[in-house]
Design brief:
alpha/beta; Rossmann fold; two-stranded antiparallel ribbon; 5 helices; 8 strands; 29% helix; globular; hydrolase; Isochorismatase-like_dom; Isochorismatase-like_sf; Cysteine hydrolase
Length: 184
């Protein structure tokens, strides 16, 4: 069976700057940590993706403390790290090549923000032919206004992003389900 790669999206210190906004899945970090521990124990492939902004004023600008990975899920030296400048972890990063060279066809995607980099990456993964899973309780996002200006809760934003992905682009699972059925 082909190995499944764990793809951890944008788990960086800069995300803490959004702490004043309402968010969902307060246990997401611990769930990502549990998945990461499982992958490490199995010596399975892990890729960490971080956002490096092109905007000098961003908390994710090169050299800023916001670029640093969250210590609870920081990469080890033997784990792949990819830097992106847009929402999609595949665009101009080498991630696809890294996966193809290793014969990896199955991806498990976790991280932040569900409707942003997680959704964008999962859509591209599917379009590239990868068997894609998104772990709903190991992703999170923040409240935001919709196109009409109505404030949506973080849970509403999260749920809509997962609905956008479900069936057509990815299988949406939870941590317990994934760990119960997965052979990493």
């Amino acid at each position: 069976m082909n190995p499944m790669a764990l793809i951890i999206i944008d788990m960086q210190q800069g995300i803490q700057d959004l702490a004043q906004r309402q968010r969902n899945n307060p246990s997401a970090l611990s769930r990502i940590g549990a998945l990461l521990a499982t992958w490490r124990e199995a010596n399975a492939p892990v890729a960490h993706v971080r956002h490096i902004s092109r905007d000098d004023d961003s908390v994710f600008a090169p050299g800023q403390p916001g670029c640093v990975f969250h210590p609870a899920v920081a990469p080890r030296r033997d784990e792949a790290v990819f830097e992106k400048n847009v929402t999609d972890a595949f665009l101009h990063t080498g991630l696809e090549r890294w996966l193809r060279v290793r014969g990896i066809q199955r991806l498990v995607i976790v991280g932040v923000a569900t409707e942003n980099s997680v959704e964008s990456t999962a859509r591209t993964a599917s379009n590239l032919g990868f068997d894609t899973l998104v772990v709903e309780d190991a992703c999170f996002t923040y409240a935001k206004a919709d196109h009409a200006g109505r404030l949506r809760t973080a849970e509403e934003v999260h749920d809509m992003a997962l609905a956008n992905l479900a069936q057509e682009f990815a299988r949406v699972v939870d941590t317990d389900m994934l760990l119960g059925e997965a052979r990493v």
